[in-house]
Amino acid sequence: MRHIRTAARALIILDQKVLAIKMRDRTGVFYILPGGGQRHGETLRQGLERECLEEIGTEVEVGELLYIREYIGKNHEFRKSHHAFHQVEHVFSCSLPNPAGIGPGTEHDKKQIGVEWIPLADLPQRRFLPEAIKPFFKDGGFKPNSNYLGDVN
């Protein structure tokens, strides 16, 4: 029996820009929100705080839950490598006590090549995953149409 992975991600908007993890794989460069898998015994908030320290090198203040998204790999573009992967992602609104503190974290994801502030106006031209959330960035903020987005990428 395969398990379902739970994860938490941080949506951080500052000065009309969203903070993203810059990734590279065989298909090229793409961007995702900071965060990752929850470990046994930690809350989603604790996991998100740990993941942000690892990936962006600074503490975050975890705010409200914005939405939940599922990712069932066999249904999306990475189906060959993610055919057995199923993740439930909890995305929180977060802020940075020290925005200047962003830098190398303690433990990058294997495909991570950097951290970047992406101007909201540039999102349509960037390969930002999940693509399904791009339309929710409006007026300098983020307004999803539902708190449960379903299986999207």
Written description of the protein model:
The structure is a single chain. With 153 residues, the chain is mainly beta. It has a single domain, classed as Nucleoside Triphosphate Pyrophosphohydrolase (Alpha-Beta Complex), CATH 3.90.79.10. The chain has helices at 44-56, 79-82, and strands spanning 5-11, 13-14, 17-25, 28-32, 35-37, 61-72, 86-95, 112-119, 137-138, 141-142, 148-151. A five-stranded mixed β-sheet has the order 5-1-7-6-11, covered by helices on one side. Strands 2, 3, 4 and 8 form a four-stranded antiparallel β-sheet that branches. The model has no long low-confidence stretch (mean pLDDT 93). Its cofactor is Mg(2+). It holds the Pfam family NUDIX. It comes from Coraliomargarita algicola. This is NUDIX domain-containing protein.
